[in-house]
TrEMBL record:
Native organism: Bionectria ochroleuca (Gliocladium roseum)
Bilayer topology term: Single-pass membrane protein
Signal sequence annotation: 1-18
Cell location: Membrane
One Pfam match: WSC
Keywords, ordered alphabetically: Glycoprotein, Membrane, Signal, Transmembrane, Transmembrane helix
Lineage summary: Eukaryota, Fungi, Dikarya, Ascomycota, Pezizomycotina
Protein name: WSC domain-containing protein
InterPro entries: Kremen_rcpt, WSC_carb-bd
Location, primary (coarse class): membrane
Matches recorded under PROSITE patterns: WSC (PS51212)
C-alpha cells in the first residue's frame, strides 16, 4: 500500500511535465518535427529548462521562435525540447549489458553537426528486472515504441532516446518496447532470470520479459 501511494504521488508530480504531445497551448511556428514537449506550468525558468535538457539558446529559439534568444517571452504554454533532427544527428554510442553480463559496444549513427549536446553516458547502471503487470500503474512513465513494438530495438537505442528527452531511467520490455521515466514506480520481480527475451535489434542482449522491464539508470557523472 505504501509503495503504491508513493508511486501515485510521484506519478501526479511528474506526469504532464514532458511528453510526446503538448498539453498546453503552443506557438504554431514551433518546429514541425518536434517529438518531445515541455509543458511550462510556471515553476521553472526558461534558462533552467534549456540547461536541464542541454539545449543551446540558438537551438531553443529555432524550435520555439516565440520565446526569443533571451527567453524574454517565457509563457504558460508548451515548448519543444527535442526534434526529430536532433534525435537522428546526435545519437551517440552506448555500452550494452548482455545476457551473459559482458558488454559490447554497438555503434549507433553519430554526427558532429551539433556539439552542444553533451555525450550520453557510455555505460548506464543496470537496476534489475521489474514486474510491470499493471497497465494503470506502469513502472516507467512513457512508452516510446510504436504499437506492435520496435522491430530493431537495442538497449543503446532506448537509452539514447531517453537521454535525449531528458529522462534518467530507461527500460526495455518484451524484446521490442522502450520506456523512459524520471522515476521508477515498482518493485523487482522475485526471479531476475525471468527477464529473458532477446532484443529485437540485437539478439545477444536481453530486453526484459513478458510484463517485465529491464531498467537502467543514467549515471550522474557523464563518462
Amino acid at each position: 500500500m505504501k509503495n503504491s501511494l508513493v508511486f501515485l504521488i510521484a506519478l501526479l508530480a511528474h506526469r504532464g511535465r514532458c511528453g510526446p504531445k503538448p498539453l498546453l497551448q503552443w506557438d504554431p511556428e514551433t518546429a514541425k518535427d518536434c517529438v518531445e514537449w515541455y509543458d511550462n506550468a510556471g515553476d521553472e525558468s526558461c534558462e533552467y529548462v534549456r540547461d536541464y535538457f542541454t539545449i543551446t539558446p540558438e537551438q531553443f529559439f529555432e524550435w520555439n521562435p516565440s520565446v526569443g534568444l533571451d527567453c524574454g517571452r517565457w509563457e504558460y504554454q508548451s515548448y519543444c525540447i527535442v526534434t526529430q533532427r536532433r534525435l537522428e544527428t546526435e545519437s551517440p554510442k552506448h555500452t550494452l549489458i548482455t545476457a551473459t553480463s559482458t558488454s559490447k559496444n554497438i555503434p549507433d549513427k553519430t554526427s558532429s553537426t551539433s556539439p552542444a549536446l553533451l555525450p550520453s553516458p557510455t555505460s548506464w547502471n543496470a537496476r534489475g528486472c521489474y514486474d510491470d503487470n499493471n497497465s494503470a500503474l506502469p513502472v516507467l512513465e512513457y512508452k516510446l515504441s510504436p504499437d506492435g513494438g520496435d522491430t530493431d530495438l537495442t538497449i543503446s537505442k532506448c537509452e539514447d532516446s531517453c537521454y535525449l528527452r531528458g529522462f534518467k531511467f530507461a527500460g526495455v520490455r518484451e524484446g521490442n518496447q522502450c520506456w523512459c521515466s524520471t522515476f521508477v514506480g515498482g518493485e523487482w520481480t522475485k526471479n531476475q532470470a525471468d527477464c529473458n527475451i532477446p532484443c529485437s535489434g540485437y539478439s545477444n542482449t536481453i530486453c526484459g520479459g513478458k510484463q517485465l522491464l529491464n531498467v537502467s539508470l543514467r549515471p550522474s557523472r557523464m563518462t
